[in-house]
Amino acid sequence: MNQGRIWTVVKPTVGLPLLLGSVTVIAILVHFALLSNTTWFPKYWNGKTAAIESSVSIG
């Protein structure tokens, strides 16, 4: 393990929950940003696809 000595400074019982918690918070923030700034992501989560939703007018 390349960064194995970090656990001599930070206990794993403190460091691992902080690491996993920060990854979770970042993932939630990214999903919230996608939900609030796009129109396709909420439709995707509701099970709709862009091919079904978009109507193509020919001629």
TrEMBL record:
<dbReference type="InterPro" id="IPR018332">
    <property type="entry name" value="Antenna_alpha"/>
</dbReference>
<keyword id="KW-0472">Membrane</keyword>
<dbReference type="GO" id="GO:0019684">
    <property type="term" value="P:photosynthesis, light reaction"/>
</dbReference>
<dbReference type="InterPro" id="IPR002361">
    <property type="entry name" value="Antenna_alpha_CS"/>
</dbReference>
<keyword id="KW-0437">Light-harvesting polypeptide</keyword>
<keyword id="KW-1133">Transmembrane helix</keyword>
<keyword id="KW-0042">Antenna complex</keyword>
<keyword id="KW-0812">Transmembrane</keyword>
<comment type="subunit">
    <text>The core complex is formed by different alpha and beta chains, binding bacteriochlorophyll molecules, and arranged most probably in tetrameric structures disposed around the reaction center. The non-pigmented gamma chains may constitute additional components.</text>
</comment>
<feature type="transmembrane region" description="Helical">
    <location>
        <begin position="14"/>
        <end position="35"/>
    </location>
</feature>
<keyword id="KW-1003">Cell membrane</keyword>
<comment type="similarity">
    <text>Belongs to the antenna complex alpha subunit family.</text>
</comment>
<keyword id="KW-0460">Magnesium</keyword>
<dbReference type="InterPro" id="IPR035889">
    <property type="entry name" value="Light-harvesting_complex"/>
</dbReference>
<feature type="domain" description="Antenna complex alpha/beta subunit">
    <location>
        <begin position="4"/>
        <end position="41"/>
    </location>
</feature>
<dbReference type="GO" id="GO:0046872">
    <property type="term" value="F:metal ion binding"/>
</dbReference>
<keyword id="KW-0076">Bacteriochlorophyll</keyword>
<dbReference type="Pfam" id="PF00556">
    <property type="entry name" value="LHC"/>
</dbReference>
<protein>
    <submittedName>
        <fullName>Light-harvesting protein B-800-850 alpha chain</fullName>
    </submittedName>
</protein>
<keyword id="KW-0157">Chromophore</keyword>
<dbReference type="GO" id="GO:0005886">
    <property type="term" value="C:plasma membrane"/>
</dbReference>
<keyword id="KW-0148">Chlorophyll</keyword>
<dbReference type="GO" id="GO:0030077">
    <property type="term" value="C:plasma membrane light-harvesting complex"/>
</dbReference>
<dbReference type="GO" id="GO:0019866">
    <property type="term" value="C:organelle inner membrane"/>
</dbReference>
<dbReference type="InterPro" id="IPR000066">
    <property type="entry name" value="Antenna_a/b"/>
</dbReference>
<dbReference type="GO" id="GO:0042314">
    <property type="term" value="F:bacteriochlorophyll binding"/>
</dbReference>
<comment type="function">
    <text>Antenna complexes are light-harvesting systems, which transfer the excitation energy to the reaction centers.</text>
</comment>
<keyword id="KW-0479">Metal-binding</keyword>
